[in-house]
Amino acid sequence: MAAPLLAPGYSRPTSELENLLTVSDSGISARFGSHTLSSHFQPIYGLSIQRPVGHEALLRSVSDDGTPFSPHALFGSLPSRARPKLDQLSHLLHLHNFLNMADRNTWLFLNMTPEVFLGTRKAPAGQSFGYQLEQLGFPAHQLVVEVLEEAVRDDAEFESAVAYFRELGCLIALDDFGAGSSNFDRIWKIRPQIVKLDRSIIARSANAPRIRRLLPQMVSMLHEAGAMVLAEGIETMDEAYIALDADIDFAQGYLFGRPHPVLTSRNEAQAVMGRVWNSFENNWQQERSQQKNMLAPYLNAIGYASVLLSAGRSQPEACASFLELPQADFCYLLDENGRQLGFNLWSKTSQPGADPRLSPLRDTRGARWARSPYFRRAIEHFGKPQVTRPYLSLSSARLCVTVSISFRIGDKVHVICGDIRCAD
Questions:
Q1: Do the domain assignments include residue 3?
Q2: Judgement on whether residues 184 and 89 belong to the same structural domain of the protein
Q3: 324 or 116: whose pLDDT is higher?
Q4: Which domain covers residue 215, as residue numbers?
Q5: Which residues are in the EAL domain (predicted)?
Q6: Confidence class of residue 12 from pLDDT cuts 50, 70 and 90?
């Protein structure tokens, strides 16, 4: 096997950092003190296009006595003044190794310490990050610069650093979103092209139905903010299913590939994505079938209630069959403007007003529910039963879904609604 070459423009060392690079049959490595550094790359898959769209560069270190050091341990062993040099050396190492694998159709995700991210713009012209890319012949649009969410600052220095990488043509990724005290203000501030969700979000979603229900809405908000979404740390098919079901764009984790000195091949990618999508389609069909079977009696009962009300029956009589169902909470009638007519009709298994703290919400006569999806959809699809996503009911203070249907009493349009309790 021929030894890899340093990238164009770097055929011979010309700076202190470049002097630390070493070429061998196994690739390009670097020396830093008593450590030998090498590059590993973990694939990042596009879930819809079913192939790697990028690789995250990860540093590997072995001391002279053969002891492996994690990046965290290596950086932690150094005084703060030495860490930027190690970070800059790792960037140079990763860029060379990535270029030598001649993959010009995927992104390289590059981590930066806050010190290097903020200080890059201040570097002399011949030592700047942009100059390095130019000398290497590395297209800036192929590089994704990762910024830790906790490093985001509200000052001109940080905004200047973000602007610098944008001007180069790089993409910006906000890393570890959802870890610690995350907030969307950081999304508005730096407008990243990619947001990397912290692994804890997917892990918690796998064990908490409430969090899993919220995840698609979080992803939708990030999409509307102009960001693509990447889920980190996917290790199981269940976690991959959650990511696909939430409309997440990209995924990374041991399920898709461990860090490796070489990039993932197309054949490996096809095998991985085939398994992931087959599992998703099977589980999605099963979930959908279970949901339809669960809702069927409630949809039938609310439809039957509309028929009885159209025929002039009383609301208690019309809604009786719905209220006898095991998860039924209450029924209520709306006029054509979404105004509630009369009280809620509660099932025998429900406890209206059980929480005295919510007593100001108890009387809903005359309430206007015209903004609610269950009213709007029922009006738009006359005579066809509708069902909402889970949401918090103001009347019961419980998580519920609402089934609804529009009908006529004489020449007036009405909507009958029924709330169904959801498990938390």
A1: no
A2: yes
A3: 324
A4: 18-264
A5: 21-273
A6: very low
Overall number of domains in the chain: 2
Contact residues for 3 (Cβ-Cβ < 8 A; gap 6+)? 23, 24, 25
What distance lies between CA 344 and its chain's CA centroid?
38
Distance CA 121, CA 114 (A): 13
Cβ atoms of residues 401 and 388 within 8 Å: yes
Alpha helices in 176-229 (DSSP H): 185-190, 199-207, 209-224
Task: Identify whether the C-beta of residue 365 lies closer than 8 Å to the C-beta of residue 340.
Answer: yes
297 and 402 inside one domain: yes
- CB contact burial 404-421 (16+ within 10 A = b; e otherwise): bbbbeeeeebbbbbbbbb
At residue 231, what is the residue type?
Answer: A
Secondary structure class of 293 (helix, strand, coil): helix
Residue 271 included in any domain: no
Enter the DSSP assignment of 348. Answer: T
Do 235 and 293 share a domain, yes or no? no
Q: What pLDDT digit, counting tens, does each position of 314-351 carry?
A: 999 999 999 999 999 999 999 999 999 999 999 998 87
Place of tokens 């570097």: 123
> Which amino acid, one-letter code, is at 367?
A
